[in-house]
Every structure is written in C-alpha cells, then in structure tokens.
Amino acid sequence: MKILPLLTLAASVSLLAGCIWAPGQHMSTGKLVRDGNADNSHVQLVQITPKLLAMDQASEQSAAVPPALLAYQPQPYRIGAGDTLYITVWDHPELTSPAGPQQQPLANGRLVRSDGTLFYPYVGQLKVEGMTIEQLRQAISNKLATYIEKPQVDVSVIGYGSQHVTLSGAFVKTDPQPITAVPLTLAQAIGVATINTQDANLSNLVLTRDGQTYHINLDKLDHGKDLARAIYLKPGDRLYLPYNDRQEAYVLGEVTHPMAIPFKTSDLTLTQALGRAGGLSQTTSKGKSVYVIRGAKNIENEPATVYQLNAHSPAAFALADHFQVQPGDVVFVGAAGVTRWNRFLSQVLPLTSALSAAASSHYYLDKSN
C-alpha cells in the first residue's frame, strides 16, 4: 500500500475544499450581500462617521426634560381628609392643648375627618378640606372673635395623610411619600426612596401625572443642570423605575467573550461594549466587519438599521467611543477569511493525523514482515 500518494491526495482535497468552503455574508453600503446575491429589503447599512455622531449628539441634546414638568409650580398646601392639624390660640391653653400641655402635640391635634370637616370649640364644625393653612387660620380667627377679643391664631399641619406620591419598581423603599407644606422635588423623592443601583434602569424613569406619562433619563438629567431639583411633584404623581433585566445589548461573533450586557444607564458606548466582551479576537476577527444591528425585533414591519465601524485603524475606536449602544442592539464582529480557512483545517487535521498514524503503523508492519 502506497501511503504517500494518499496523503498527497488528502492534502489536495483539503486545499480545494478550503478554497470553495466560505459560505457566509458581508455588508456593503445600503444592502446585505449573501453568497453573491443582494437583498436590501430588510436591512439598511449606515457607516459610523463623525457626521453621523454629530447628528446623534444634536438630537440627544434636543430631547430635554418634558417642558410640562419644568413648568409646573406647586401651589400653597391645601388641607385634606386624614391630615392632623395643631391649632394654637395664644393665651388660651384650654383651646390649644385640651389634653394638657404636658402631652405630645399629636395628642392635642385635630384630625380632619373623612368628610373633610373638623370640630373646634366656639367655632363648631368647619368644612376645611380644600382650604389653605392661611384660609383656615383666618376662618377660625373670625369665628373666635365673637368670644375672644382680637384672637391670635396659628395653624400648622403635624400629620400629613391626604396627599401622596407613590413609588414602585427598582427602589429600596417604595413607601408612599407625603406631599407637605414644603414642596417635594423629584430629587428629594428619589433620595428618600433610594435607587437600587444594581438592578435599576436609570435611563427610563416613568412619571405618570393626570393620565399623562413622561419618560425621564435620570442618568442624563443632572449632567451639570441640576434639573431633578427643578421638577416639583404633584399630589397623585406615580413614579416607576424599571428593572434592567430586560434591557440588554448582545455582543456576538469574533470577540473574546460573547455576552449579553445589561443596561444600568444609557451611556454604553460601542467601545465599552466591545471592551466588556474582551475586545476583538486578534487572530480571528475582521476589523472591517464590526456591525451594530438595531431594530431587528421589528424587522417584519420595517427595515433594521445596521451601523458599520471600520476598525482596521485605531482611530476608528475614537468614533466607537462616541457611538451609543441602545437596549436590544446586537453588536456583531465578523470573521476574517483566514479564520474560516483555519476552522476548516481544524476539522481536517485530525483526519490527516489519523491517516499519518495509520501509514506509520502500516510501514512498520511491512518492515517487520
């Protein structure tokens, strides 16, 4: 048996197969090329260039906080059912502290009933719901003037039970927060609730007010503007901070560690995404074939956009460092042509090694005979 010609034939077949075995796809501007056939019905290719980044940055800056939120200004506090009031009539402790001055203020407080009324000596039953503190003070003064000369009356709220802001989602504390005589800002409410930074999606706080929904990017809200302190909350507002478990980008292809990257903020750049995946594989990746696929989930209704980065030059990563990756994006790094050839060889070489071992065994058997 002549082993050498067989090995030569196997190597020739391997070489031939390697030359023709390269099915796959590559991108060209505006279309997807697969096995030589153009199909541009579902994909639109866009090059990542300085002009594209400038346009995106201008669009991002124009997407500010909804004007309606900044325009709202809190009104004077209005008393409601469930509030507890402390009414002081100077020089008349029997009216101010009927339970005794040694008692806590709450023991001498006046609870506003569910029908919005309260009772006060010499005044009778008053409909106080909807009044401001100043309006109630004046109303009690006018009633007491019949019995007390020039009464000096003070009113304060010592228990707020009528107006709240509710919170849910990725907060540490989700207890309702009261609206008080001191206006409550978005920054204060978030500070009390405490964000679960490990699980929260900071890019999409949802504020619901009067049936209208507003989306706020907390991560970018206070970049030098302190806007969270300029947004006042209104009684009945609802704050929902979503979790980041469904907000992911996916890095696939010729990278060191393909992975899903969860979003905590909206400032994930292409450079950061590739960096978390260990970077491009130095031996298998094709630097020109770095793609960001966006809109693939809705590809049946409208074309997906594929952004291409030519990463052959280190300068390209300056562009990547300003390109924002969004939740749902797929970052894909294509393989170099030599990679496909090497993968084929990795499948063929075990066969040739086996043939070589068989040939050596046959040679020694023939020699021993």
From TrEMBL:
Protein's UniProt keywords contain Ion transport: yes
UniProt subcellular location: Cell outer membrane
Membrane topology: Multi-pass membrane protein
Gene Ontology molecular function terms on file: polysaccharide transmembrane transporter activity; porin activity
InterPro entries with a match to the protein in the record: Poly_export (IPR049712), Poly_export_N (IPR003715), SLBB_dom (IPR054765)
Key words, A-Z: Cell outer membrane, Ion transport, Lipoprotein, Membrane, Palmitate, Polysaccharide transport, Porin, Signal, Sugar transport, Transmembrane, Transmembrane beta strand, Transport
PROSITE patterns the record matches: PROKAR_LIPOPROTEIN
GO annotation (BP), single: monoatomic ion transport
Boundaries of every SLBB domain copy: 163-240, 247-333
Domain of life: Bacteria
Domain Polysaccharide export protein N-terminal, residue spans: 73-157
Any one Gene Ontology cellular component term annotated for this protein: pore complex
Keyword Transmembrane: yes
Family the UniProt entry places it in: Belongs to the BexD/CtrA/VexA family.
Protein name as annotated: Polysaccharide export outer membrane protein
